[in-house]
Automatic annotation (TrEMBL):
<dbReference type="InterPro" id="IPR000504">
    <property type="entry name" value="RRM_dom"/>
</dbReference>
<dbReference type="InterPro" id="IPR047021">
    <property type="entry name" value="REXO1/3/4-like"/>
</dbReference>
<keyword id="KW-0694">RNA-binding</keyword>
<dbReference type="InterPro" id="IPR012677">
    <property type="entry name" value="Nucleotide-bd_a/b_plait_sf"/>
</dbReference>
<dbReference type="Pfam" id="PF00076">
    <property type="entry name" value="RRM_1"/>
</dbReference>
<keyword id="KW-0269">Exonuclease</keyword>
<feature type="domain" description="RRM">
    <location>
        <begin position="567"/>
        <end position="645"/>
    </location>
</feature>
<dbReference type="InterPro" id="IPR034922">
    <property type="entry name" value="REX1-like_exo"/>
</dbReference>
<dbReference type="GO" id="GO:0005634">
    <property type="term" value="C:nucleus"/>
</dbReference>
<feature type="domain" description="RRM">
    <location>
        <begin position="472"/>
        <end position="546"/>
    </location>
</feature>
<dbReference type="InterPro" id="IPR012337">
    <property type="entry name" value="RNaseH-like_sf"/>
</dbReference>
<dbReference type="InterPro" id="IPR035979">
    <property type="entry name" value="RBD_domain_sf"/>
</dbReference>
<protein>
    <submittedName>
        <fullName>REXO5 exonuclease</fullName>
    </submittedName>
</protein>
<dbReference type="InterPro" id="IPR036397">
    <property type="entry name" value="RNaseH_sf"/>
</dbReference>
<keyword id="KW-0378">Hydrolase</keyword>
<dbReference type="InterPro" id="IPR013520">
    <property type="entry name" value="Ribonucl_H"/>
</dbReference>
<keyword id="KW-0540">Nuclease</keyword>
Amino acid sequence: QEKLSRLSAALLGEDCEVSHEQVYELLKYAALGKSHNAAQPSWCRIYHQSHLAGVVVIVLHEMSQLHFYKFYLQFKHLRRVFRHRFTLPPSSANFLANLYGDEPSLNPQNTTQGSASTSSQCATNSSGLQQDPVIQKYGEEKRGLTSYTLTLEELKKNDYPMKGSPGYEGYICTECDQQRTDSSPLFGLDCEMCLTAKGNEVTRVSLVDAQGRCLLNELVKPESRIVNYRTRFSGITRKILLPVKTKLADIQKRLKQMLPHDAVLVGHSLNADLQALQMIHSSVIDTSLLFARNEGRRFKLKFLAKAVLGKEIQCEQKIGHDPTEDARAALELAQFFIEQGPAKVAELNLEMLLTTERLTETSSNKSALQLQQNTVQRQQNGPPQLSRSCFLDCLQLTGQKPLLLGRQEPDSSGLCQGNLSTSNKQILQQALKDVPLSTFSIIQFSLDPEHAAPHFLAGICEKVRIKLTDMLTIYAGPFDESFCLKTVKKEFGRCGPIRSLTVVTETYQPYICIQYEVLEAAQLAVETLNGAEVAGSCIKVQRPVTGTMLDCDVLIKELELDIENEGVIYVAGLKKSLTETDLQEEFSQLKDLQALFLPRDLQSGKHRNCCFLKFLKPESAVDALEVINGWAMTGSRLRSRKALAPGHLWRWIWQMDHSNEKQKGDILSVEKEQQPNFEQELREKLRKLDQHIWKLYRRLQNNTLCVVLFPGVN
């Protein structure tokens, strides 16, 4: 179910962030394929790679997601042609230097300084250690095990069963309620599940003690009919379960008897195991969270066991996972972390090790001992370098000469140097001739340096923030002096999650100002409540009237036509107690429903009162809108409309709104410094760049993979 939900989220844009390393592995596989031992990307899949006619990477230097949404209307072709859109996190590495096989940590701005001394390299490594998410979360000092058990807030955020929480009624408590200390016993737990008519149900349970001894390894007969044994992962078959008499209640009873009152359970994404067991245990160490990564991503247990412990688990030769093996691996990982401390874990440089494992051409029968030796060597030598021979040299060996065009050309070290004498138009003309003849091309367009100046970007950022805030805001009224605010909030809350509601008293009669969390909610309020009777008054609902909002209707229309929103609808008015499973059942009658995304508050982790539905066909989405809005005629609370904001835009709005306030004085001074036509010049340049991309795109052969990068300036 975890894999299914992650797929659903990706379809709707929630899982919308990819790293530079992930883009690299996509391009590498697309260019080389299995014939050169390149692996499928970890985050997406390319089918029939051998049919690809070529790969084209278009780099828009000095441009970022900020430019894309500030000048959204100017990127007419880009937003209508490119179906998949992802956010790139900031990176200290130079992407093109990586692509050419140079050291990831090199900074193109430092090329004139030559080689760094040993002492400065040590300082850089120390600084990098401080940026490691493990150090940022736990510090460098060693601690006892109680420092690594999940807090109450973390348990809630990561969907751990909790006493008294909705959805966990009837769950059995382990009754391990004694105060934990750093000498409390650790137990590794892992379950394998099959899919039944009821959902995920446990079919095998393993428990190991702190010495790794197996205390429990039991098959379990599910209560409901099994619809998918998931043998590839669970190892369970119909034949295996046929003689089994043990029920879930038997396992629950045995676990309660076996676990001491101060037991600490260890597992990898242990919340799924406890949910399947229908048990509540408040003291846990989750190794998927313990070995922290940036942006909420998690390492797989298989990778951690290999990289940290030097152990091979979940081998492809075996049918299904061994829960005892997985429970023991999770336990040993926790013990390693506690005994060695965060600093030692950070020194393993797991993120770079993961990238190198994907990029390095290694044989499939590489032993665990060899991996341990490589890990030790990496610890001694520092972060590994990306080998030039792993990508572009392989292309040349096969007779495929890569093409690089642009104002940024690599020097002898592979780093990019500016060539300001070349215009974007000249680059386009050359690309139109050469790209169809090349199987791998990098085309680079650039802005003028003044358009990438920090003070200019700060001004643009503030304007975008103000515009997004205005688009999320509506004013409604007039109301009677004695109107019921609770009734009004309830009615407008049916349109979607409300961030803030204030009463405007400067007017003759009271009005309300509401700021929503998603664009769809504000638009739904304008469309459905303008002219309606609310709290005994016939009201008008409108957005703020400002200069930035004059093109709001045009922008809303274009967002509806955005290719990422094709076949996606927004539904509001949900009960917050409903789970994704409940909603899938409620909407199961809708034809061609492909995926459901239930947004969470990115701070609290709680579900919102709205969701997004994606359909296989756009016409099915239109039919679903009619059905859902028809339910309102029969008393349903639900309201629905076409989606406006792809997942990455929704996430970006939230991040901008919750980021630190910028200094208003600085931005005001920026505004004064900028010439009146400066922004208009940039708008025209980006419109022309959009046309350049469209002309180049039309010249590409069929079956060409085309990636456009907005790398930003940092």
